[in-house]
Design a protein that fits this description.
The chain is α+β, with helices and mostly antiparallel strands. It is built from eight helices and 14 strands.
Length: 279
């Protein structure tokens, strides 16, 4: 079986005309209703409508529907394959360059389909009046997947790739960082355009509950910052990390401990102060 057949080509007319792979509907894939959210279902409906329009040779409409489905299906290489296929007959060379990159990134560049799409991208780039420019993302943290207009194009500080001249929305997601979104402009010029971007690390919080003996008059410092004198009515809100907590009171020996604050958890310190010798 060929690589393309393994990609699930189920519409004979599309295979003959464009080679477009059509994914099964969610109900077909699961044997019944699914628990996918409404957005995912809407995206699948748009995608299937695009398949039907492509089958009828309505490539402009198919392209429009595939692009509308893209925000919900951009982890599926099939949609990028299809986008390239319907963009070719209507000479949307910039679309082929962008969506071809999405296909090559997801597919890994090793399949027969990848070789075909790579050829289409090279041909499309050569036919454009203003040639695409090589772009490379210098983005922190390293290795995060970068999406351009919902198209996964590569990883931060990875290899360069072609982008048509224009303005794009760059998005990136990572569990321990704030969602990233920023507009960039790829300008005409020589050499590789380096795009420098940085994600913001998420700040998580926990709490520290303090109960001292004696119960009052004990000064509390956290990393040498005075936070109050006991009794402290409420737990102290702190960022998640390790702290050195010190307790002092005239006539008593200092008491100190390291404590690690964890996300959404409350740590407790209950020092028993000992009177200083000879006091």
């Amino acid at each position: 079986m060929s690589e393309r057949n393994r990609r699930g080509l189920v519409v004979a007319a599309l295979v003959a005309a464009l080679g477009i792979p059509a994914t099964p509907t969610m109900a077909q894939a699961s044997g019944g209703p699914t628990v996918e959210d409404k957005d995912q279902q809407a995206g699948e409906r748009l995608y299937q409508r695009g398949i039907r329009y492509a089958k009828r040779g309505k490539y402009e409409k198919a392209l429009q529907l595939f692009e509308q489905a893209l925000p919900y299906k951009n982890s599926d290489s099939n949609i990028f394959f299809n986008l390239c296929m319907v963009a070719a007959p209507i000479k949307k060379w910039d679309k082929i360059v962008l969506y071809g990159r999405g296909f090559l990134f997801i597919d890994g560049g090793q399949s027969a389909d990848s070789k075909e799409i790579a050829r289409k991208v090279t041909k499309a780039a050569g036919l454009m009046t203003v040639r695409p420019r090589p772009v490379k993302f210098d983005m922190t943290p390293k290795g995060v997947e970068v999406k351009v207009n919902h198209v996964p194009v590569g990883r931060a500080q990875g290899q360069e790739f072609l982008l048509p001249i224009g303005t794009y929305t760059v998005r990136a997601f990572r569990d321990d960082h704030e969602p990233f979104e920023k507009k960039i402009t790829v300008v005409n010029g020589a050499g590789t355009q380096i795009v420098k971007l940085a994600m913001t690390k998420k700040i998580f919080f926990g709490k520290l509950l303090i109960k001292t003996e004696p119960a009052d008059g004990v000064t509390v410092t956290i990393d040498d910052k005075n936070v109050g004198v006991t009794p402290l009515k409420d737990p102290i809100k702190l960022e998640t990390r390790k702290y050195l907590v010190k307790f002092t009171k005239p006539g008593y020996d200092m008491w100190q401990r390291y404590v690690t604050i964890e996300k959404d958890q409350t740590a407790t310190l209950s020092p028993v102060m000992e009177r200083s010798t000879g006091k």
